[in-house]
Amino acid sequence: MTTSGIHRRALLQAALALPFLWLRPAWPSQVLAEDRAAPPPGSRHRERMLLLVELHGGNDGLNTVIPYDDPAYYRARPQLAIPRDQVRQLTPRVGLHPALSPLLALWDAKELAWIQGVGYPKPNRSHFRSIEIWDTASGSEEVLDKGWLSALFEQYPLPGGFSAEGILLGKGDAGPLGGGKTRTIALNDPAQFLHQAGTVTPVSVPTPNRALAHILEVRREISQAAADLQGRMQQVPPLPIDFPSHKFGKQLEVAARLIAAKVPVAVIKVTHGSFDTHAGQLTAHHRLLEELAQGLLTFRAAMVQQGLWRDVLVMTYSEFGRRVGANASHGTDHGTAAPHLLMGGRVRGGLYGTSPSLTDLAAGDLKHTLDYRSVYATVIEQWWGLPAVSFRSGRYPAVECLTSWDGA
Amino acid sequence: MGLSFDEARHLLSRAGFGGTPDEIRSLMTSDRQGAVTHLLTMPGNKAVTPPPAWIHRLPPLPKLRKVWTDRERKAFHEQLKMQGHELKAWWYRELVTTRHPLLERMTLFWHNHFTSSLHKVRWPAFLYQQNVLLRLYALGSFRTLLQAIAKNPAMLLYLDTQTNRREHPNENFARELFELFTLGEGHYTEEDIKQAARAFTGWHLDHQTGAFRIDLRHHDDGPKQVFGKQGHFEGDDILSLTLEQPQLARYLVGKLWREFVSDQPDPVTVGRLADSFRRKNYEVAEVLKELFLTAEFWAPENRGVLIKSPVELIVGTTRLFNLPLDEATPHIAYGRRLGQDLFDPPNVKGWPGGLRWITTSTLLDRTQLLQRAIRGHETGHPHGMVGMTQAQGVTWLATEPLDVVQATLLPLAPVQPLTAGQERGQAVHHCVVDPVYQLK
């Protein structure tokens, strides 16, 4: 056992003594002896997975959930607006981009919630800075170095059966899982990962050299994760569902296999993009949204087939939306607020929040109507049943869009 | 006083791709000043590897492409893919065979600074031309490089300057100019970006000639206000105004520090070098010389604290073991898998680098690459490199004392010490798969 392992175990025992045994594993195979301790009275925490979908590059919210009843939308985007008769109407005021049609099945099943006007005050229009703000749940003018999920897992550590907090698929970085002590496994192909992990032996040497310490830590993560993955992946037959063959579809297929194999992590992150549609947006955005919708619909089918759809919450996020007006390249520049979706077997489908005004703008940009940290609070409190978390700038109310714990 | 073996090794690994014991020893006759000057004044600012045949070709005109059949379109895409591969192979060949490694390191640095990607630009010849430009000024004038890159075809396409018009300015280039190329976040306002974007309207690529021109029909020559100054600024004026900002030198020196010294720039030394960089009219070789002669560059606590980028790892290992290059296909494939696909950075910010080079996924791929490289493991596999036994002329591995072999391969003692009496082949394998081999 390494020093860090001992440290971790001690931390876990300390954590278990406290009244927040969270994410009590519901999957029998991963329940370790120490987790069988009686849960604290009133605790209803159970295993629930979060699938993060980063819409990399800044998704154009206005052409995603479309305010088709607002003449200002058509005035602002003579070339880019989706014609009213092509919009898939959700309500008399807003509807979906036609490429998102596959999601209508989820909408009708009331498993899809759209949270509108998500953003933050004093929006930053740099890709890198704005995604950093989203990743770390910081205010516009403060710099934090830990992802919001990393910070959460430090406050409420996962029980011992978890080999890592998160798994990253695709090309994206750790984002919300970055920084701090979070163990994140970057995985493209599980079989290949296992094969290669056999060649890595963990060693622990204390060193002030940060680069070396990082490499040694990554080696430890590999060994531990490989041991966990090994048994589980072998037990699960291939999913009887064909995923779309694009990159996003492939990521979701791996995600579905990992969840079906009950790999003990709390978060899986996938990345889709690039949504940075400065030029020629119509075609590019259509394809991106189509891939998004097809992928998510297939993912849902796989989860339903596995009987796990009620244990998964899907959440999209993106660094910003785009300008209200189009640019001369038939594209849109970096903007501010945008809608995001939550979907899953426990989501109470519907439209939440307020669609930002298209006429009351700030420097040509939408004014956000809901702080993005409210979406995080929804995940923390309503999905995982943890106590409300204070972000640096305070608390943000959760969006009441998940079935209550009592009804669970 | 001449450099010690470890000092000479340090300089070669930081200012190049490392070296063999003979290359290291040849620097030991010089002192720091002499060795640094030697590396910086090697002649040449052009690649010696013959370029592919298509480098001067222009993309087919849009009106021609409109009437293509599906088959023609497919053939075109295949052609682009093949050329992209040839382009990467060309640069790997230059990286592996160059006699001026610092020139290539700086060309890589600028490629990661003034990013453009095949993915967006699509026409490989434009990326080739950009690479030639980056190398030409890699150790020259940053001022000239900045002025040239703003008019470079690949850049015009990559950051949408091509479609930046007076009627609807596209801010992409102006934003990245300030945020990533010169000043860094927080040293300009949103309004500066909007105004600067107007100055670059009409900066287009002429489809007929492949040359830069200002399209006056789409150019906004009206008054603009940038950095608190007012005038009928043109694009070049914006670049000049930017070059007047003291922040620019601080930003670039900080970035050079993270590339060559450590991940924690010392603000005082950075400030001193930045003042000098500005005074000396942004001559890159001058500032690098000062950087390489700082006490921090040589400090023992800064040895082996940087992680080799995938390209440094692949190129350095190929050079050190004299591995065959052939078509460079495994080099390209490993570069991609390890997270650094040449000519295809993930976004305009480039490769984030540093600790982020090493993830659970890339560390496994790095280990696999190295094992295959030195063992000749799975030779014939598309990703396999031919092993040490087949490498040509690497006599030092067999003849040098083991402590010299270790000191050549590793910047620090290995995490797991070599055991006494270890067979030579095992010892080399031991060093190369040790975590410390990932460091420079």
Topology, pairings included?
The complex is a heterodimer of chains A (408) and B (440).
Chain A: H1 3-17, E1 49-56, E2 65-66, H2 71-76, E3 88-89, E4 95-96, H3 104-108, E5 112-119, H4 127-136, H5 148-155, E6 166-168, E7 184-186, H6 190-197, H7 210-235, H8 247-260, E8 267-273, H9 281-305, E9 312-317, E10 338-344, E11 350-352, E12 370-371, H10 372-383
Chain B: H1 5-14, H2 21-27, H3 32-40, H4 62-66, H5 70-97, H6 101-111, H7 118-121, H8 124-136, H9 142-149, H10 153-158, H11 172-182, H12 190-199, E1 203-205, E2 212-214, E3 224-226, E4 229-231, H13 235-243, H14 246-260, H15 267-279, H16 284-292, H17 295-298, H18 310-320, H19 329-337, H20 360-375, H21 396-399, H22 402-409, H23 424-433
Antiparallel strand pairs in B: 1-2, 3-4
Helix pairs in contact in B: 1-2, 3-16, 5-8, 5-18, 11-12, 12-13, 14-15, 14-16, 15-16, 18-20, 20-23, 22-23
Structure description:
The complex is a heterodimer of chains A (408) and B (440). Chain A has helices at residues 3-17, 71-76, 104-108, 127-136, 148-155, 190-197, 210-235, 247-260, 281-305, 372-383, and strands spanning 49-56, 65-66, 88-89, 95-96, 112-119, 166-168, 184-186, 267-273, 312-317, 338-344, 350-352, 370-371. With 408 residues, chain A is of the alpha/beta class. Chain A has a domain at 50-188 and 266-383: Alkaline Phosphatase, subunit A. In chain A, strands 1, 5, 6, 7, 8, 9, 10, 11 and 12 form a 9-stranded mixed β-sheet that branches. Chain A has a 3-stranded antiparallel β-sheet with strand order 2-4-3, with no helix packed on it. In chain A, strand 3 (88-89) and strand 4 form a beta hairpin. The longest helix of chain A has 26 residues, at 210-235. Chain A is globular. The two termini of chain A are 39 Å apart. In chain B, helix 1 crosses helix 2 and helix 12 (190-199) packs across helix 13 (235-243). In chain B, 52% of the residues lie in helices and 3% in strands. The longest helix of chain B has 28 residues, at 70-97. Among the domains of chain B are: 1-33, no CATH class; 306-438, no CATH class. Chain B has a two-stranded antiparallel ribbon with strand order 1-2. In chain B, a hairpin with a 2-residue loop joins strand 3 (224-226) and strand 4 (229-231). Chain B is built from 23 helices and 4 strands. Chain B is mainly α. Mean pLDDT of chain B is 92; it is low at 377-390. The chains are: A alpha/beta (408), B mainly alpha (440). Chains A and B meet through helix 4, strand 7, helix 6 and helix 7 of A and helix 11 and helix 20 of B.
